[in-house]
Amino acid sequence: MSDIHVRVASWQKDIADLRRIRETVFIAEQAVPPELEWDSDDANAVHFLAFEGDYAIGTARLLPDGHIGRVAVLKDWRGLKVGDALLRAVIAEAERQGLKAQRLSAQVHATPFYEKHGFRIVSDEFLEAGIPHVDMLRESA
């Protein structure tokens, strides 16, 4: 792994990379129905792309209300701190925007990852797209 970096992405200019990653992770690997993956929030979200060199390998989005979502890293790059870099960038942008509370719905297996970044579970387990999730909250000082 070399030269991992994260930048804010443009939904219009970077849509091919954003779609490729999300379709691979959510639709192909996790069997999320396409109609649940794509929503009207994409147009108003701040999107992020993680790259190794110039190849996009991960994505996330931040909604205007502080909700973080669509965090996805391609399989070959998982476990290499790409998700950490993405989440740090999203949290930094949320705080820059003055969003003191960041929320997300985490797949249950990923809760330790989010807890490491200051999130705590604030709901009972529920199913979203057939996958067990919990709501999580992070509050900035």
Overall geometry comes to: globular
Q: Kindly state the number of beta strands.
A: 8
Outline the biggest β-sheet: 8 strands, mixed
Low-confidence stretches: none
Specify the CATH architecture of the domain at 4-99.
3-Layer(aba) Sandwich
The CATH class assignment of the domain at 4-99 is: Alpha Beta
Q: Note the beta-strand portion.
A: 25-35%
Please write the string of helix (H) and strand (E) elements.
EHHEEEHEHEEE
Pfam families: Acetyltransf_10
GO molecular function, one term: acyltransferase activity, transferring groups other than amino-acyl groups
Keywords: Acyltransferase, Transferase
Structure characterization notes:
With 141 residues, this protein is α+β, with helices and mostly antiparallel strands. The protein has a domain at 4-99: Aminopeptidase, CATH 3.40.630.30. It has helices at residues 15-29, 34-37, 82-96, 111-115; strands spanning 4-9, 46-52, 55-62, 67-73, 101-107, 120-121, 126-128, 131-139. Strands 1, 2, 3, 4, 5, 6, 7 and 8 form an eight-stranded mixed β-sheet that branches. The mean pLDDT is 95.
Which labels suit this protein?
eight-stranded mixed beta sheet; globular; Aminopeptidase; GNAT_dom; alpha+beta; 141 residues; 35% strand
Helix and strand arrangement:
Elements: E1 4-9, H1 15-29, H2 34-37, E2 46-52, E3 55-62, E4 67-73, H3 82-96, E5 101-107, H4 111-115, E6 120-121, E7 126-128, E8 131-139
Parallel strand pairs: 4-5
Antiparallel strand pairs: 1-2, 2-3, 3-4, 5-8, 6-8, 7-8
